Amino acid sequence: MARIVEINPINPQPRLIAQAVDILQHGGVICYPTDTMYGVGCDIFNQKAVKRVYQIKRRPKDKPFSFMCASLTNISQYGHVGNTAYRLMRKNLPGPYTFVLSGTKMVPKIMLTKQKTVGIRVPNHPVCLAMLELLGNPVLNTSAMIEDDDQPVRTAMDVERLFGKQVDLIIDSGEIVPAPSSVISLLSEQPEVLREGRGDISAFL
């Protein structure tokens, strides 16, 4: 069974963040809180761990996952960011948005779509940001939900019910009312809203 660790959602304890990061560095898969819902993820540079997440989520290999970065500076290493995209992201990040960009050579092939695009987030959640900062690499981001399971996933206990036997660590940061991120394509100068979720989309219309 996965170990469950309680981490303060407002002031994450550095010692506990370091424990989570140690698991990621050693190829582990963890469940963690974000500003939209609980997520499942791993270091995107550990291919074995990424494949594990595909199995856990029962996801076809031709549907790459999005990933989270620590900051906007970080994003430009992994996605091609034009002037308009930079301006929009600077105003709205961190926040509940997934931005679709053309991927750079830094992105592992397993994380790229056939069109060589990526979905990147900078979540507005202290636990996530502390973890990403310490790890220094992006973390794969997918919801801690299973498609054919219609029970709500709001707490670490809900996450444990679904993934407790398949992941190495579950971070408990209290209840999160789940809502997907808004997905915005910044592949051209004119932004395109691909999915409206949590987060004001008026700036992208």
What is the secondary structure topology, with strand pairs?
Elements: E1 3-6, H1 14-25, E2 30-33, E3 38-41, H2 47-57, E4 66-68, H3 72-78, H4 83-92, E5 97-102, E6 117-121, H5 126-135, E7 139-143, H6 156-163, E8 169-172, E9 182-185, E10 192-195
Parallel strand pairs: 1-8, 2-8, 4-6, 5-9
Antiparallel strand pairs: 2-3, 3-7, 4-7, 5-6, 9-10
Helix pairs in contact: 1-5
Key terms:
single chain; 205 residues; alpha/beta; DHBP synthase; 10-stranded mixed sheet; 10 strands
Mean pLDDT: 96
Gyration radius, to the nearest Å? 16 Å
Main beta-sheet strand count, sense and barrel state: 10 strands, mixed
Report strand %: 15-25%
- Care to count the β-strands? 10
- Low-confidence runs of at least 5 consecutive residues: none
Look at the structure and name the CATH superfamily. Answer: DHBP synthase
The figure for the number of domains is 1
Question: Biggest sheet, strands in spatial order?
Answer: 1-8-2-3-7-4-6-5-9-10
**CATH topology heading:** DHBP synthase
Characterize the overall form: globular
Helix content: 25-40%
State the CATH class.
Answer: Alpha Beta
Order of helices and strands: EHEEHEHHEEHEHEEE
Count of discrete alpha- or pi-helical segments spanning 4 or more residues: 6
InterPro entries: DHBP_synth_RibB-like_a/b_dom, Sua5-like_dom, SUA5_domain
Organism: Desulfobulbus propionicus (strain ATCC 33891 / DSM 2032 / VKM B-1956 / 1pr3)
Pfam family, one: Sua5_yciO_yrdC
GO molecular function: double-stranded RNA binding
